[in-house]
Known about the structure:
Helix 2 (60-71) packs parallel to helix 4 (95-105) and helix 3 packs across helix 4. By secondary structure, the chain is an alpha+beta fold. The longest helix is centred in the middle third of the chain and has 13 residues, at 75-87. 38% of the residues lie in helices and 16% in strands. A four-stranded antiparallel β-sheet has the order 2-1-3-4. It is globular, with a radius of gyration of 14 Å. It has one domain. The two termini are 24 Å apart.
Amino acid sequence: MVLVIYGGECISLPKNDSELLELSEKHNWVFSMPIENSECVSVKAGHHELRGRLFRNVQIQEMNMPAFTLSQLDKEQLELFLSKVQSEPSERMHCGTMLNYALSVCPEAAGFERGGDKTPIFGK
């Protein structure tokens, strides 16, 4: 689970598209605004808090992707993911880097075949 503060409200992620659209319309929010507008306060993978590995400010729509992928990890995938995050040489990483670690162990979260020859990658 991921918690993000935006517009003074704490938002639990992941959310589906219609939930994000409803929040956006209700509060007149734009989730793709510059990252200074939202702050990530918690990133849990299993019982592990990973917030300290990410930069403080995030875009909600971008953080929603790793939130969903992390929610799909089974116990074995979680252990592999945590070992990849712990081996990351940088003290902090962008949420896209965390997403790629999660997708590398759980490609089915992006519709790819588990154990297949292709791995989804989030990139800019």
